[in-house]
Amino acid sequence: MEGNLTNWSPMRERGAGPALLYYFGVTRNNEEAASGLFAALAHSGRREILRYLRDRDFVRAGDIGAALAIGPSTLSGHLKVLRQAGLVESRRRGTEIQYRLRMSLVDEAILALMALRREQEATGPDDPEDASSATDEREEPIR
């Protein structure tokens, strides 16, 4: 699922769809994988696990649960989603399973999003109506 920023372009094929998905090699045939990545990041509990793993190398599942006060069943479900999305990797040591963050994928996702942002700022919105609706949304007070 990892890409190469030196060869990255906003669209790999004509009419391909969202550039970030194509950067990660997502095609119409495997959009489900990209959906899994974004769904994994959408849950605050999973983001908390990623933050915890950020500065650690291969942590036992029990230690993650204890540090974050997450029950074993809930933690297992979250780790499964994160592993399937490619955000964490696991290894077995005897009866324990240890996890760590896959920084390469996280770094590449951040760089790809930053590249898209720079491109959008340079070229402006594709649809002028999108720009006006985005501006209107930002002017609304946050409640």
TrEMBL record:
Keyword terms of this UniProt record: DNA-binding, Transcription, Transcription regulation
Coiled coil region boundaries: none
Region (Disordered): 118-143
Keyword Transcription: yes
Residue stretches making up the HTH arsR-type domain: 26-121
SUPFAM superfamilies associated with the record: Winged helix' DNA-binding domain
Pfam families (UniProt xref): HTH_5
An annotated Gene Ontology molecular function: DNA-binding transcription factor activity
Signal peptide residue numbers: none
Name of the protein in question: DNA-binding transcriptional ArsR family regulator
Organism: Isoptericola jiangsuensis
